[in-house]
Amino acid sequence: MLLLRAARSWARAPQGRSPLHPLAALSQVLKLERSRRDGVVFPLRRLARNLVPGAEEATFALFQPELSALQRAEALFTSGRGHAIDYVSSAERMEHAPLPALPEVCFIGRSNVGKSSLIRALFALAPEVEVRVSKTPFASISDSLKRTFLLVDGVVGIQSTDLIAVEMLEEFGIPYVMVVTKIDRASKGLLLKNVLKIQEFGKEKTQGCFPQLFLVRFSVIARLTCVHQLSLFLVDTEKETYFMGSVFLLDVGLKQW
């Protein structure tokens, strides 16, 4: 479990940490040729090009922010002397975590679906933040929890554990988003098939799921550029800066739900 909060003092990146990737900052991504830039920042838009003529495309373009909005979101995820990002604590159980004073968001998913990798990418411009993942499934739902991100493997699609997570989120009435990971490990045909299945599932079986998916690649270079849309959605939804609260990472488990 990872808890983050805004801090008053700036912390230096620990010695020995890897330097920032050249494409970690959106300013560097914007220097790319336009077609490549759009492909890495808006992967769902590019995937929609493979749809058959006349196919429904609305759910591929619900959240299409301007680049200037992405830059503003990136600023919240960038540490500096006037805006530090602080690691607070790790806890095996919710009751062991500090009492929340700000809104919370939660990233959940099966083991090895890419939760910690996604968080590292989101905080690529805050290298002093250490990412740790809890192996303990949900035991309770915090009143401060505002949104949950359910990570689904783009190669295999929705699995039984994902369905259990959806059932829990629907039962508790928590707004949530599905993030499709490892999209560069699937062929275009397989990825499009899984994306369409997930979209149809969301439309027919859910009430609280945001209808547009967010796609994230597995490779480090691409992953850093794919998260810019997600970072804006994270801080801009309902005009609340959720980033300035707590972030939780949890594995989905069958037997303890």
TrEMBL record:
Concerning InterPro entries, the annotation shows:
EngB_GTPase, GTP-bd, P-loop_NTPase
One Gene Ontology molecular-function label: GTP binding
Q: Taxonomically, which superkingdom?
A: Eukaryota
Q: Which residues form the G domain?
A: 104-139
One GO cellular component assignment for this chain's record is:
mitochondrion
PANTHER family recorded: GTP-BINDING PROTEIN 8
- This protein's name: G domain-containing protein
Organism listed in the record: Callipepla squamata (Scaled quail)
